[in-house]
Specification:
Layout lengths: L8 E5 H4 E4 L12 E6 L1 H5 L3 E2 L6 E5 L1 H6 L7 E3 L2 E2 L8 E4 L6 E3 L4 E5 L10 H4 L3 H10 L1 E2 L3 E2 L2 H6 L1 E5 L2 H42 L6 E2 L6 E2 L3 E4 L4 E6 L12 E4 L4 E2 L2 E2 L5 E3 L19 E4 L1 E2 L7 E3 L8 E2 L3 E6 L5 H9 L1 H10 L1 E2 L4 E2 L2 H6 L1 E4 L2 H39 L9
Parallel strand pairs: 3-9, 4-8, 18-25
Antiparallel strand pairs: 1-13, 2-10, 3-5, 6-8, 6-10, 7-12, 11-12, 14-15, 16-29, 17-26, 18-21, 19-20, 22-24, 22-26, 23-28, 27-28
Helix pairs in contact: 7-11
């Protein structure tokens, strides 16, 4: 952060304008203690405000804890530790009085000496400014887990406009953007719920059927078939096992982290040599448009994640913990991907997954044996079209959401540093 401060703004160290307080309250419930609400790490990590509208965890605390770790309107909570230094210092402001609510030992409380110094809602944004997060990052210490001490928190420097009306105007602008973000996210969530319900309906009852039969996958239309997974695909093959790196040394290598919410995300890529030093032919692993990538070795939460590969503008290969699946021509990628994300198929994945100490996995043989529905080509196209129309709507809303989040990020950078001044 530059040493220059905009005219009419102040630059202060946090330790000079308030007091930090740790907590000893954990998530346990004990006899002969008072029941309280507890604000936890994720409550702060996910929100920039804390209000009575939230459902907090119920725990118990002793008399000393209820007095020393209590929360009141205007308090700011920070995350003092994390597995990565860039997650240190996330903050949220308490915007209303909370009844019998304490903060957990995973958080530190910051209480201003003068409550008139910073506007209540401005506090929810000013401590999330990039220049402050950078100070948190640089001050964090550790190797496997990073922390920021109370002493280092006190040294963090914040700049802000002295007149409260300017603070209030900045908070109002950013709050209006947050409102758009929340509404758009709500619309996306509703569309995802609609898609899930439609998938359940169309992938079990089809379109316009009146006669049904029992099958290994449940009750389905009489005209449908059920086949093992290996009869609707032409190939299932795992990828290349190498110590890939972030530097672009030849060819992108897709990993399970590139599968996000059922879609391919190439915002962060890993790479390997086109000419493999160990003699493998990387051409054997190059992906084609329409291939499906399925994670089969990973943590339990990641097992079964899949996406459809689309051309990224250059050849790409994939890592060893994913299967590359090539569907047959009469069982298109989009429909197969829908089937693979349906509840029934995911339950089968859970059944064949074998947990281990550090990761879980399932075999190609077990995957091939999972039975799937086989409607007519015409109905496959109709079902795909119906569900894809919702996907198109979701994608449109997601683009709007991403754009609004980018706008907010730019506005915070400009407004919270005084680079752009607001009129009041």
């Amino acid at each position: 952060m530059s040493d220059s401060v905009p005219v009419g703004w102040e630059s202060r160290r946090l330790g000079d304008i308030g007091i930090f307080k740790t907590s000893s309250v954990d998530k346990k419930t004990r006899l002969n203690e008072q029941v309280v609400s507890l604000v936890n790490y994720m409550d702060v990590y996910r929100n920039n405000i804390i209000s009575p509208d939230y459902q907090f965890q119920k725990v118990t605390a002793n008399k000393n804890q209820t007095e020393s770790s209590n929360l009141t309107k205007g308090d700011i909570l920070f995350t003092p530790s994390s597995e990565t230094p860039d997650d240190i210092g996330h903050s949220a402001v308490v915007v209303d009085e909370l009844e019998r609510t304490l903060h957990s030992y995973h958080l530190v409380r910051f209480r201003l000496n003068n409550q008139e110094l910073l506007d209540l809602h401005f506090r929810g944004y000013v401590f999330r400014a990039n220049y402050i997060m950078k100070q948190f990052y640089l001050g964090a210490t550790g190797s496997t887990r990073f922390t920021l001490s109370i002493g280092d928190f006190s040294k963090i420097r914040v700049i802000f406009p002295s007149p409260l009306p300017e603070q209030q105007k900045i908070a109002s602008i950013l709050t209006s953007v947050d409102t758009v973000i929340e509404k758009t996210q709500s619309q996306i969530n509703k569309l995802k719920d609609l898609k899930k319900a439609m998938m359940q309906e169309l992938l079990t009852k089809g379109i316009g059927h009146t006669e049904f039969k029992d099958s290994p996958v449940g009750r389905i239309p009489k005209s449908w078939e059920v086949k093992p997974f290996n009869e609707v695909v032409t190939s299932i093959r795992s990828g290349l096992s190498r110590r890939i790196i972030s530097q672009d040394i030849g060819i992108p290598v897709l990993i399970s982290g590139n599968i996000q919410n059922g879609k391919l995300d190439t915002s962060e890529l890993k790479y390997w040599y086109v000419d493999d030093p160990q003699g493998a032919n990387t051409n054997n692993y190059i992906l084609d448009d329409g291939d499906i990538l399925l994670c089969f070795i990973n943590s339990i939460s990641q097992i079964g994640k899949s996406c459809i590969f689309h051309d990224i503008g250059r050849p790409a290969i994939y890592t060893t913990n994913m299967f590359r699946i090539i569907p047959k021509r009469n069982y298109p990628s989009v429909f197969l991907h829908l089937v693979m994300n349906a509840d029934g198929f995911q339950r089968e994945i859970e059944l064949i997954t074998k947990p281990a100490v550090n990761q879980a996995s399932f075999t190609k043989v077990d995957l091939e044996a999972i039975e799937v529905i086989v409607p007519s080509i015409k109905e496959i196209q109709e079902i795909t079209c119906a569900i894809s129309s919702i996907d198109t709507n979701i994608d449109e809303k997601q683009r709007k959401l991403n754009h609004t989040k980018s706008l907010k990020k730019a506005l915070m950078q400009d407004l919270l540093t005084g680079k752009v001044r607001v009129k009041v």
